[in-house]
Structures are given as structure tokens and as C-alpha cells.
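Quick illustration, no need to memorize.
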Amino acid sequence: PEVDRALQARIRAHYKQYADKIVEAARARGYGSPMTSGIVFVWGSCGRIAKAGKILLIANRFAPNPDYVEVAREALHWLLGRNPVNSSMVTGYGTPPLGPIYHSMFGPMGPGLPMPPGYLCGGPTRGDAEGISQYPAKCWRPYYTSFQMTECSVGYQVPLIYLLGALQAGAE
């Protein structure tokens, strides 16, 4: 009962406007990459893709649009291997599944604990990929020593968890 209706309307309009930009960007790029202009394969690109999917599904809650759900689903497909490097960006899932990533607890960098499934890595990073590829989306080196590309972050995991949960719950 104490909701500021004007503020709520402004926030919803902002989310809807951004969701529309994400859909437009995804439809304009190969592999449905939902990155809006100016945000193209920088450090943490996979976190940004997951966040775009999360924003679409949040906007879909108050402004239902099948395009939002479709592009969010495509973002998940991108993260799980339907991308220019044909590689899953999530440990233990996708085709082919991502192996050890840069992590101080798991894999070869840490005390030798096995790499658990479900970690989203940073992904292709054009700024730190000299000599890999001239194409930003292909600037990828899936080695646990490539911290710029394979580190994980809570900032990447949270949007992935929301994306997975909302799609599983039937965001349509």
C-alpha cells in the first residue's frame, strides 16, 4: 500500500526500454549475443550475457513479451555452447563442458579439490587476447591459467542462477 507508483512506473519503463534494446541487439548479432552496443566481449562478457537474460525475464514479469523469453533462452544457449567458439562457459555443463577454470580453491590452481559443476566463467575477452583472434567473440582461451577469461565471479553466478531459475519456473 505504500508503493510509490510514479517511481515504480519509471523503474518498469527503464527495464522495458533496456529489455527492448537487448532484444534488438541480439537479433542484430550472430549467435544471438544479447550485448547492447558498447558492451562487446570485454572482461566478464559471459556475466553480461547472463545479466541480459536476467533483465529480460524481470521485464517479462510486468510487461509480458515472448521475445524477452526467447532471447533470454538464447542467452542461456550461448552460455552453454551455442557460440562462436563452440564451447560451454559453464563448468560441467554444455557441449563441450568447460573444464578447470581460474580458481584458488578448485582445479590445478588450488589445493586440488575437484572442479564443481555450475561455475560461469568470464568468457571471451578481446582486450586481453592479443594474438588469439581479430574477432572479439572468438578471443577465447579455455585454460585455467587464463584468468582474464576463465575466472569466475559472484557477479557472473547470480544472473546465471536467476536466468536458470526463472526459465525453469516457466517465465513464459
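Residues 77 and 126 are 21 Å apart (CA to CA).
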